[in-house]
Amino acid sequence: MKKKNLKSIKTENNVVTNNDELLSSLRSMESSWIQKSRLKRRSKKKVRLSRSLKGDIFLSIVLGLFALFSAYPLVFTIFNALKPLDEIFIFPPKLFPNNITFDNFVDLFNLIGNTQIPILRYFYNTVFVTLLGTAGHVLIASLAAYPLAKHDFPGRTIINQIVVYSLMFSAAVTSIPNYMIISGLGLVDSPWAIIIPSWGFTLGLFLMRQFMVRVPTELLEAAKMDGAGEYTIYWKVVMPIVKPAWLTVVILLFQSLWSTDGGSLIFTESLKPLSYALQQIVSGGIARTGAAAAVSVIMLIVPISVFVINQSRIIDTMASSGLK
How far is CA 210 from the centre of its chain? Predict the structure, then answer.
């Protein structure tokens, strides 16, 4: 009996040591994978193609021309807001103003001060819709993308194909069904008429799913061996890894919601967003053309600032998802 007990104790000890060895091996695999990914990023930054001096000069000139071509509309918009009214109507238009003035911005702020509803109310409506719509979509899209990318269940392939096919439809095609659904829910003439449809932004779901496919399955299995549940793995393992993807979704949806004017979904004046108020202010004819140029610059400041801060994340996500 003592020999049998000793044998059973030895086998139990062997099982415990084997489990400990398995956990340690998985943790070492996790740390090695993280180190390899960091080394790959560093090596990518240090890689330099072997080109001649003439090739470098030619490539720099070509890239500079493309950069000037891409930046021209933005530069023209900024300088157009700094022109006096007589220079705005010059044809052909000039890029740089002869007499720089800030009268257009002064006129705009004077018009804003004469509105019945305070401009801060319009600004609050825009911020409320933009923040709540963006945060809600990132949460819902990531929760939907995680099982589509890392779990096997019946109908997963069909759902992924539906998501891809839905990218072909423009907003104009879905505007009437969208209005019918919002009207049926009784959400017309409220901020939720803009917020809830933004949660179904299929491009964000597609980007999140494409990026989550790259997450190693071994890393998730190691987290499960450590006792982590599905929601813990999703929040503490997957979401930090796919940070470039959801930052890109934030930027894309933020730009869309920031410039929305409510359309045919909001009718109450006090619930209208900022872009609608600015459009109404500058729609007074030719005399307000300068104020309209100032409005264009003001509406561009926030989206461009968000894009410049996170532009590297967007490039990384687009390269990983296969978009061009």
Answer: 14
Distance of CA 154 to the CA centre of its chain: 30
Three-state DSSP at 32 gives helix
Q: What is the sign, positive or negative, of the torsion defined by CA atoms of 117, 118, 122, 128?
A: negative
Residue 65 to residues 70, 72, 302, Cα–Cα distance (Å): 9, 11, 26
DSSP H or E run through 281:
helix 274-281
**Cα atoms in the 13 Å half-sphere on the side-chain side of 324:** 0
pLDDT-derived band at 11 (thresholds 50, 70, 90) equals very low
41-75 residue pLDDT tens: 555 544 555 567 777 888 888 888 888 888 888 88
Using CA atoms, how far residue 143 sits from 1, 39, 225, in Å, is 55, 30, 22
Contact 250, 134 (CB under 8 A): yes
99 CB-near residues (< 8 Å, 6+ apart): 83, 84, 87
Domain segments of the chain as ranges: 103-321
The span from the CA of 202 to the CA of 137, in Å, is 10
Q: What are the structure tokens assigned to 113, written together?
A: 């001060």
For 261-277, letters b (16+ CB in 10 Å) and e give bbeebbeeeebbbbbbb
| Residue 153 one-letter amino acid | F
- For the domain made up of 103-321, give the CATH fold: MetI-like fold (1.10.3720)
Q: How many CB atoms lie within 10 A of CB 107?
A: 18
CB atoms within 10 A of CB 289: 16
User: Are residues 255 and 188 in contact, defined by beta-carbon separation less than 8 angstroms?
Assistant: no
Q: What is the pLDDT of residues 179-219, one digit of tens each?
A: 888 888 888 888 898 899 888 888 888 888 888 888 888 88
Please give the Cα distance from 66 to 76 (Å, whole number).
Answer: 16
- In this structure, what are the phi and psi dihedrals at residue 21, rounded to the nearest 5 degrees? -65, -40
Continuous segment of H or E residues that includes residue 22? helix 2-46
For 287, which DSSP code?
G
